[in-house]
């Protein structure tokens, strides 16, 4: 249920209303915007007298929310959420470029790529230290050493870092990581999502291989319900009948998620297509449809990459793409 207050609502009376609602055992989520204040009521609202609340002078309207996701629902929070990563903001009109290799391979590799993508305009460095692979015989990442090398690249460039966490047991290793990524395979790892909800740092949540938008939002709800509202949604392609691309990039998800939720939405065209030559057109299309950022794989030697070289751009190609993205966003604005 949501209670929309009038712009001139008396603060003391508002606090009294909130106290009364909490006294009924409800959790009250307060969203204060430029023109109105919205109280989101979470819990058993069956006994709440809508007519009584609606009759209050300071109340503009009262509505029941049918969706099972509440905290990430735009009805509860009409204005865009803006997530801050270092000095960079994501959402609310701020666009973020995230780039780097699929996996960290060496200090020379990650530092050189970090410098190259920063020079091309990247705001955040991505790189995998723990790699979930389909085959148990594939490269699984450098793990703790990979995290150390990411921090070295951050020290060298000043770029914040985002990297994937696979297990609750690894949380202590990620205390100095700027953004924790939940990959597609872990989107419904609810124990992990609950623990990430107890942190005070951004979480980049990727859509699962065959998950609906509602399921993605419910996963975000797990994080937010435990206290962490710094969630960034990521569309990275889903499995369909397509037989030529790695996945199908569902760009319709971007405007739909913006309609349903106040959380920022970024797009990963690298994992969606699996082909470097397909990344630029899909990245530009994603920018045109209103995403809040892009996460793109970049490698200095794609043919010899230990992970996903086929979908990685060379630094020079990434620089060209970054320029085109700026042009697309300007044209679409």
Give a quick set of tags describing it.
single chain; 333 residues; alpha/beta; four-stranded antiparallel β-sheet; 10 helices
How are the SSEs placed, and which strands pair?
Blueprint: E1 2-5, H1 11-23, E2 27-32, E3 37-42, H2 50-54, E4 59-63, E5 83-85, E6 88-90, E7 96-100, H3 107-119, E8 124-126, H4 144-157, E9 161-164, E10 179-182, H5 190-196, E11 203-206, H6 213-225, E12 231-235, H7 253-260, E13 265-267, H8 269-273, H9 279-288, E14 293-297, H10 315-332
Parallel strand pairs: 7-8, 7-14, 8-9, 9-10, 10-11, 11-12, 12-13, 13-14
Antiparallel strand pairs: 1-3, 1-4, 2-3, 5-6
Query: What class do helices, strands and sheet pairing give?
Result: alpha/beta
Bulk shape: elongated
**What is the average per-residue confidence, as pLDDT, rounded to a whole number?**
94
Beta-strand residue fraction: 15-25%
Write down the secondary-structure element order.
Answer: EHEEHEEEEHEHEEHEHEHEHHEH
Distance between the termini: 34 Å
Ranges where pLDDT stays below 50 over 5 or more residues in a row are: none
Count of DSSP helices? Answer: 10
> Residue share in helices?
25-40%
Gyration radius over CA: 21 Å
Strands, count = 14
Order of strands in the sheet with most strands:
7-8-9-10-11-12-13-14
Q: How is the biggest beta sheet arranged?
A: 8 strands, parallel, barrel
